[in-house]
Amino acid sequence: MALKLADYKTNVHNDWCPGCGDFGIVNALQMALAEMGIQRDKATIFSGIGCSGKTSHFINTYGIHTLHGRVLTFAQGGKLANPEMTVVAVGGDGDGLGIGAGHFVAAGRRNIDMTYIIFDNGVYGLTKGQASPTLKLGEKTKSLPSPNTNYNVNPIGLAVASGFTFVARAYSYDVRHLKDLIIQAIRHKGLSFLDVLQPCPTYNDINTRDWYAGEDLAKESMERHSRIYKLEETHFDPVVHYADETEIDEKLAQALIKSLEWGNKIPIGVFYKNETISPFASRLTDKIPNYLENSPAKQKISEDGVPTTDVTSILNSLKV
Amino acid sequence: MSSIDFSWLIGGPQGSGVESGANVFSKVCAELGYQIFGKREFHSNIKGEHSYFIVRISDSVIHSNVNEVSLMISFDAETIFRHYDEVMQGGGIIYDSDLQETSTDSVRALDNHFKERLHKDLESKNKPFTISGVLEIAKEKGVHLYPVSFKKILSSLAEQTENPKLKGMIRMYNVIGVSLSLGLIKMPSTSLLQSIDSIFSKKPKIAEINKLAANYSYNFAISKFTNFPFTLMGTEKQKDTILVQGHQGTSIGKMVSGCRFQSYYPITPASDESVFLESNELLEVYHDRPGSTLVIQTEDEISAIGMMIGSSLTGTRSSTSTSGPGFALMAEAIGWAGMNEVPIVLTLYQRSGPSTGLPTRHGQDDLLFAVAGSFGDFPKIVYSSGDIEESFYDTGRCFNYADVYQVPVIHMMDKFLSSSVVTCKRFDPKKITINRGKLLDTIEGEYKRFAFTDDGISPRSRLGLDNGIFWNTGDESDEYGHITEDPQMRIKMMDKRMSRLDLILKQIPENEQIISHNIAEYTIISWGSTKGPILDALEMLKKEGIDIGFIQIKLLHPFPANSIKTLLQKAKYIIDIEANHSGQLGKIFKQNVTREVDYFILKYTGRGMTCTEVYQSLKKIIENKAKRREVLDHGS
Q1: Segment B23-37, tens digit of pLDDT
Q2: Contact assignment for A318 to B248 by CB distance below 8 Å
Q3: What is the pLDDT of residues B40-84, one digit of tens each?
Q4: How far apart are CA B116 and CA B134, in angstroms?
Q5: Which CATH number fits the domain that encloses residue A23?
Q6: What confidence category does residue B1 fall into, taking pLDDT thresholds of 50, 70 and 90?
Q7: Contact residues on chain A for B288, CB-CB shorter than 8 A
Q8: The domain spanning residue B526 has which CATH number?
Q9: Do residues A81 and A114 make contact, with C-beta atoms less than 8 angstroms apart?
Q10: Residues of B with Cβ-Cβ distance to A64 under 8 angstroms
Q11: CB distance B377 to B476 below 8 Å
């Protein structure tokens, strides 16, 4: 039965602030699931803690709202046990790059076939606007007592350095473009990462919707002034085409350099895509040949309450 | 207690093959029909620090070590300095004669605390601070000394085989030591050679050389050593006996119980279990294609528990294994699992805390933390095993409890168990049953994951199941799993979850909750691995006509207070035996049973209890010579 967009929505009351960039992300995610025709009960949205953590409750698929910083751990466990399931993990930049940064790096090294979306707004909204990992050094958003004393994390750079094999950035007010990127990310064979710039209208008074739109720049010039531009509209080729180390190194370096662009020109789109790196599942099938057909979730472990695992040979080896 | 009761100690620097030597020795003795209880002690160190292994051998069932050593084999000086005084009158020490003049100061691994005590002792006995000095003391006590030059054994061997390379093969000292010991006690050598073959089955050349060395040393001892009062020629072999290592009870138990996902972060003494599971990741399954255990080494313990929960949500029986420090990191997620009614089994191999504590030593310090671990009120089960054999069957129970009650289960194990090697009855997988509780295979119509039911347990869907969509959240939730802050819903949901504690006490059979070994005027309460030394001590007392009761409490949370209260009605004095400082079980007992513990026997040196010291302190209690709190300290 073909599903419509409305089928992916729950009737849970959404309590995000009016104008919140999160709405665009949840909409795009629902659109992507609908467009791909993914059955609702074959997908799980895992979420972290914070405003973005509530996302899983608004989407009518399996939804697991986990712990602060730990969303990737739950999501990976679910995907490893049931590899047929479509898994999308979502969370804020504080969740994923602050408290959860260790898991972010470790997940990259594994390259499990799933998608991670960071709602990136530079503040901890739900605790009233403290500085989060992507806020720039010296910036003072409105509820900070003094300017930020920490250097910012570069999510794209960290992702490519950690082994993510699909790394992209989107802007939450460009919902169609975001939806297309989500589809690409889900289709990607390996761990995909999407950094979504998402203005927090309540606490981030620096990186606002108007700022991204370049309203301040418009005063100085009559030309096109949006800060955001799309990589696919340039000559930027993010794809690793051959399993060749030199090419991989070049594409990684190119992504890292590109990720440093900020200020008056902010690139969105795919920074890096490499399907020549083995997804984790194929590393597993190398040692457990039937892992995918007979995954942990599928295995039959008993018959009428009697265990079916045969440990005779192990017990024989202990026999005296 | 039995006609044969022989304890053999092998010691040496870590990395010198002490453990494999002990494994060969244990295997040989077990093959000849003896019952084995072996225990390894080691430093938090890779190479060089002192480690030792005591193997106790008997022709009847034993559960622990004794204080006295019958025969010690050492190929380094440190072992002699540290253990010479444990060797009994009439016992023996085989030692490297080239070490005779070694002084305490030249053994750099001897720490100052120990050296000070040793020097004081030697000084008072007017002996030099050397190996000769301590050996003289041993000799005066009536210990037989058997000097052997290990170097000469190698060079004679090299000459005999015309293979000069053998001269430098000091890695064979362990096999030489084992073989000298077996020769001395006149144990038949056939199974020695077989064990070497099986240990080096992938390196036939190494096996050959080791067998040569073994043969030579064995015959050397037979021909040169005399006067040793112990001979162990073998005894009647018990049917269906296995020789198992500590972690194998829970790991094989996990395979049989259908655990198909284990995530872990390396930590002593828990990781052996995960490594064993991964080494045996491909599983044979009756009438079906092969199965597998997916073992994932994670970046930390938080990830380990997160992954385990994620996996369990797919309906997969999932587990992790850790020790105190790792368990602390898992605390928040345990609460999440409790809140979302996710069945997980967490095997907690305790060691000595607090903090890093004694990282490779034994302790039962984590009981209160396991019971209270994680903030907020939620139901969980804390269950403990008393020995390796129990741990196999208990693992099966833990998975059933988790599935049936949809709660986290913490399975308490410890370092005493994990580094023991014992003979026991072959595990019987048929005695493990699998009960998945209200886990659903199909769903039709509207589904609510946290639907209110008569017994407070809701039918459980799993991620990916058709029509089974649900939500989870660490927040309070409604029946669908969506966030709610409604005060009335909060009451209903809290009551629903917490009602499980009573259900658990009501439904789990009493003999799974508590094992009553006997009730007497003096009755011991205890939990976990103290079972072994207690049983052996009680046997010793029984021979003297002293009858002491013992109840082993397996279910520690929820606490079976009523059953215990009833059981203990006839007991006049309660003795709490535990390997921790504060008598943690005693606290739980007092709070729930509202009765005082009369005596505590505690040990927190990080070394496991021996039956000898438990026996001694119980005797003191009976004779009314004991303090309320007896603290044990045997073992180096």
Answers
A1: 999 999 999 999 999
A2: yes
A3: 999 999 898 999 999 999 999 999 999 999 999 998 999 999 999
A4: 14
A5: 3.40.50.970
A6: very low
A7: 300, 308
A8: 3.40.50.920
A9: no
A10: 310, 313, 463, 471-472
A11: no
CA atoms within 13 A on the CB side of B36: 32
Q: What is the pTM of this model?
A: 0.97
Confidence of residue B190 (pLDDT cuts 50, 70, 90): confident
- Mean pLDDT of the B402-414 span: 98
In angstroms, the CA B388 to CA B246 distance is 6
Q: Is the dihedral of CA A153, A156, A160, A166 positive or negative?
A: positive
Q: How many domains does chain B have?
A: 4
**Which residue type does A76 have?**
Q
Question: DSSP H helical segments within B32-102, as ranges?
Answer: 77-83
Q: What is the edge-to-edge ordering of all strands in the sheet holding B69-74?
A: B144-148, B87-96, B69-74, B5-13, B50-58, B35-41, B420-425, B241-245
Six token digits for residue B477: 């939730």
- Note whether A66 contacts B314, CB cutoff 8 Å: no
Q: B280: nearest CA in chain A? A: A314
pLDDT of residue A222: 64
The tokens for B110 are 């001897």
Q: Which two tokens stand for residue A6?
A: 């409305």
Cβ atoms B346, B335 nearer than 8 A: no
Set of chain B residues whose Cβ sits within 8 Å of the Cβ of A309: 255-256, 258, 283-286, 291, 429
Q: How many domains does chain A have?
A: 1
Residue B601 lies in a domain: yes
CA dist., res. B305 & res. B321, Å (int): 9
The first and second tokens of residue A289, run together, are 């040949």
| pLDDT of B2 above 70 | no
Domain containing B495: what range?
438-508
Q: Which of B377, B406, B431 is the last residue of a domain?
A: B431
Low-confidence ranges of chain A (pLDDT < 70): 1, 220-224
Q: Pick the residue from chain B with its C-alpha nearest to A60.
A: B469
Torsion, Cα B313 B262 A107 B449, to 10 degrees, reads 10
Tokens 């289960």 found at: B409
Taking CA–CA distances from B465, the nearest residue in chain A reads A41
